[in-house]
Request: fold
Amino acid sequence: MPSQESYHDALLRVIDEVVAPGAASVDADGVFPQAQVDALGAAGLLALTVPAEHGGAGAGLAEAAWVIRELGSVCGSTAMIVTMHYSAVAALAAAGDKETLAAVGGGRHLSTLAFSETGSRSHFWAPGSSAVLEPGVPEPGVPEPAAPGTGGRAVRLDAGKSWVTSAGHADSYVWSSRPLSDAAAGPMTLWLVPEGTPGLSVSGAFDGLGLRGNSSAPMTADGVRVPPDAMLGEDGAGLDLALAAVLPYFLICSAAMSAGLMRRLAAETAAHLARTHLTHLGVSLAQQAGPRAQLARLRIEADRTWAHVTEALSAVATGREVAPLLVLEVKAAAGEAAADAADLALRACGGSAFRKESVIERLFRDSRAARVMAPTTEALYDFIGRALLGLPLLGDV
Reply:
């Protein structure tokens, strides 16, 4: 694993050698960027946020956000995959899953979240999938549970997950379900489900508008059986774990991805203005006040978005009272700003940016994802309003 002092160099090398050269084909062909993920793992960057005692770098949210910003400026699909991986690692670390953390720390394990469902859609906090403790002795090959009082029984999981990033490519899934017990204190329980578990399948293809290589496909659990000690945290405490550990990583890294996309939009627009000439006037677009003003607006919004992210990171790191509010704000603000910036870049660069070979065209499509990715912009606006009014984050009010 690279030291924390060298992870910048390791990332930039992987971007230059693997991620950037493959970005266009990942998008055009809608293929999972396996070579990119493998290179990030070999460079220790998948293990960046794994605690040092489990073989990782022991880095935190700020380092993760920087990685995602840099990836987001080059390949949105790869950035999304790593965002979900870091979010899953946050759940594993909070639950103390030493074995899986050690696998991630060794650079040989990609994880992801499996929260969104067909029935509750973007309301990830209301899973409809079931978890049932089965009677009897587990079948051969099912690990004996360490959890006391289960008598060698297994837990059966059944679900229809609608959007699972890295579906069929991840090594494990942080999986949400209803609690085992009706007496559980909360509405959700989390499990670690290994890829290849019998009954687990990718039940459809992903052919999206943007982020086309991130394999956010539906998955089905049909009688998936896991040992009770695959539970992450306590029964019914999955939502608390998700809100406290997972959501900050997901929201801030998503915002960082938008910030990187916006910075790339500004760079691509500047390059277009410099190389494009109005031959009948004998000037470049860079010599026109209007296009320069559009470029200025792009860079201002990119820097403003990153400043919002860094302020949220500072608040989280120092435990300031405003930290939860800023964490909720950043994805909503950055997602909307990225979509608006992509609109502006398209106008600034005109028809040349409307062609498939244009980087701006790809960024335009990628910029639309944050708005509809749970929690959506509208859901976050509601959460923010509730927080400002002193209301519960979730509820019927």
Summary: The first strand starts at residue 111 and ends at 114.
